[in-house]
Amino acid sequence: MEQVVKEKDVSNENMVMEADKSVKITLILTVLGGILIVNSFILKAALGSQDMPSTFSAILGAFVLALPIIFTAFKDLLEGHVRMNELVALAVIAAMASGKFQMAGIIAFILSVAIIIESRTATGAQRSIEDLIKLTPTTALKIADGKEQEVEVATLSVGDIIRIKPGENFPVDGRIVAGESTVNQASITGESLPLERTVGDDVFAGTQNLTGVIDLEVTKLGEETTLGKIKDMIMLAEKTRTPIIRIIDRYAGFYTPTILMLAGVTWFASPPLEAMERVITLLVISCPVAIVLSNPTATVAAVAAAARLGIFIKNINHLELAAKIGAFVFDKTGTLTDGELSVVKINPFGEVKPAELLQLAASTDRYSNHPTALALLKIASEASISLLEVADFKEVHGKGVCAVVDESQCMVGRINFIREQNENLIIPEHEESASDGMSVVYVVRDNNVIGWIGFKDKLRNEAPAMLEELRDLGVKHIAMVTGDRRSVAETVAENLSIDEFRSECLPEDKVEYVEKIKKDMPVAVVGDGVNDAPALAAGDLGIAMGAIGSDVAINSASIALMTNDLRRIPMLVFLSKKSKMIIAQNLTFGLLVVIVGMLLAAFGKMPPIWAAILHTLSSIFVIFNSARLVRTGEELTFAEKK
Fold first, then answer.
1. Cβ–Cβ under 8 Å, residues 206 and 136
2. Residue 10: predicted pLDDT
């Protein structure tokens, strides 16, 4: 696998090198030809009636400038394609055939400049890939038998131990096994502030080790790393086509013959002395480069902005879909709240002591990764309560756990789960009401409910502002689904002014609710990407929070946010709407230039040189208009630095 990854990276690098080589050759020919054309004007002015030196310089300059244009058109024809390049080549050839070598040279010069600009833009995705590749070192210090050995990153395997020194970038995804350091993850998550990392924490390829020496166990290599997946995302962005671009691609073979037909009509309908000039103008202005560039330039710029903000988009079509979302469905725990539950009340029944209840609950839950289990284990550790031996551990996702603890059959879970296991269990009603406002799990030992433990979670600080921004962006319906009790869900919904909520939901209940909303409008589901995988997959758009390094999140969601910052969600919608608007602007402008330019050409109201200038300016406009997307979301990173 490592060899395949290396070959793909080399392939991307070769693509950029070939593109750079082609641009350099075109640039040299453009400069040389431009000098010859300028020289022809100087000679004409200096020598007066002696036209031969001036004409020779103009002919040579025109041929030099026309060479890359004609070569590109000829290459297309050899490959069996009829594209837009042929129109430009025909215009230059027509000008040369009519003896207007200075005009041909000027047109070719302007169009060559356009070709250079377009080539640099067309390789934008590959260039972005090259920049990302530079983030990862090609060598690493492998630790073998306690000694450092410098090796090629491509030769590493999962499980190898490597050493990263201060100032170095991480070449792979890995888990820290020794040492601690401050890590800059801005290249992946968009977080401007470095984070402290110690033993057991994950780090990611392309991020930077700032302060300490750490040893790392390799967990992912090459394209399997988070950085590798971002590279794939950027490559996909370049290939994306909007419906109108797909139509242009499909009918490109008919476009050129149609333009040639119009050129023929223009020739016969024009005065003899103006016919050739009008035809040349029409051929130059009809090349729809601005239209072809309108989508890829905007899409690559939008994806670059998303990647900088730590927004991982699996399919570029999902970026377009985000602008159409009418409803958002949020999970509660870990999404609208911090997800770090704290034990706030221990309520034993009968003669059971609080420490005994906590010990039994924490022991039963010791192999679970559910937030309630983690909170129990944390408080048990802080209280120096030793855990009991556990056997026959079983967990029902989203409901509770069963296990044999100290030879007793125990259960810890929500009230519905407890009742499902034994309908005859008695839970005093006043005990349920006493737990209002808390997430509660009941503890059962040998078919006796011995008490309950209450948890509370804190709302994320940015949650209210995030929901308000979504409403300002046109989202019509905001809902929350949670497996928590109604009283807890109701409190959160009231605090955040949520339109609708569902409580005590199992994973299948969440999916059912999402399917219901989808009947009325496109819906986005936001969750943690692990517990909410079915609901994330059910939505038109699934957004996984805090998904960095999580395969489950990336596989189940359409979009994965590399951080838990809720402000990325309205920024995603805003970026989608803005990119859609800019693509529409580009297409409208490009179509307008072609249609109006062709009409002016047909009626002799535009000279060929002005057609070439307009052709180039339209391409430059599209490129710079799309580039405005790159800076989207800068206010978030600026705010994080304060």
1. yes
2. 44
pLDDT in tens, 487-512: 888 888 988 999 999 988 877 888 89
Q: Which two tokens stand for residue 125?
A: 């995705």
* Nearest CA-CA partner of 471 in 493, 491, 496, 490: 496
Percent of the chain with pLDDT over 90: 18
Give me the active site residues, please.
331
pLDDT of residue 245: 55
3-state secondary structure labels for all residues of 326-393? CEEEEEHHHHHECCCCEEEEEEECCCCCHHHHHHHHHHHCCCCCCHHHHHHHHHHHHCCCCCCCEEEE
- Tokens 């670059």 correspond to 304
3-class secondary structure, 215: strand
- Do 510 and 494 contact (CB within 8 A), yes or no? no
Residue type present at position 255? Y
Separation between Cα atoms, residue 154 and residue 168, nearest integer Å:
17
Over 442-486, what HEC string results?
EEEECCEEEEEEEEECCECCCHHHHHHHHHHCCCCEEEEECCCCH
Q: Beta partners for 220?
A: 173
User: For residue 625, what pLDDT is reported?
Assistant: 92
Cβ count within 10 A of residue 354: 14
Amino acid identity at 325: I
Helices (H) and strands (E) in the chain, counts: 23, 22
d(CA 458, CA 339): 8
* Per-residue pLDDT reduced to its tens digit, 157-187: 888 888 888 888 888 888 888 888 888 776 5
Torsion sign, CA atoms 4, 9, 15, 18: negative
d(CA 595, CA 536): 45
* Residue 357: predicted pLDDT: 93
Distance CA 74, CA 92 (A): 14
Q: Give the chain's end-to-end CA distance (angstroms, integer).
A: 43
Choose among 568, 522, 573, 571: nearest CA to 547: 568
Q: How far apart are CA 160 and CA 228, in angstroms?
A: 19
Other C-beta atoms within 10 Å of 228: how many? 23
Secondary structure in 3-state letters for 272-319: HHHHHHHHHHHHHHCCCHHHHHHHHHHHHHHHHHHHHCCEEECCHHHH
pTM for the model stands at: 0.69
Q: In what order do the strands lie in the sheet with 342-348?
A: 342-348, 448-456, 439-445, 408-413, 400-405, 390-396
Q: Which long-range contacts (CB under 8 A, 24 or more apart) does 12-20 make?
A: 12/126, 12/129, 12/130, 12/133, 12/231, 12/235, 13/130, 13/133, 15/123, 15/126, 16/123, 16/126, 16/127, 16/129, 16/130, 19/119, 19/122, 19/123, 19/126, 20/123
Tokens 């997800």 belong to which residue? 339
For residue range 397-434, list pLDDT tens digits in order.
778 899 999 889 999 998 888 888 887 787 765 455 55
Half-sphere exposure of 629 (CA within 13 A, CB side): 31
Q: Which of 116, 96, 113 is nearest to 105 (CA)?
A: 96
Query: Looking up tokens 């983030």, which residue turns up?
Result: 135
For residue 176 the two structure tokens come to 């820290």
Residues in the chain, overall count: 642
Q: For residues 22 and 34, what is the distance between their CA atoms, to the nearest angstrom?
A: 18
Radius of gyration of the chain (CA): 33
Strand partners of residue 560: 312, 544
Cα(415)–Cα(429) distance, integer angstroms: 12
Whole-number Å distance between alpha carbons of 20 and 141: 33
Query: In this structure, which amino acid lies at residue 271?
Result: P
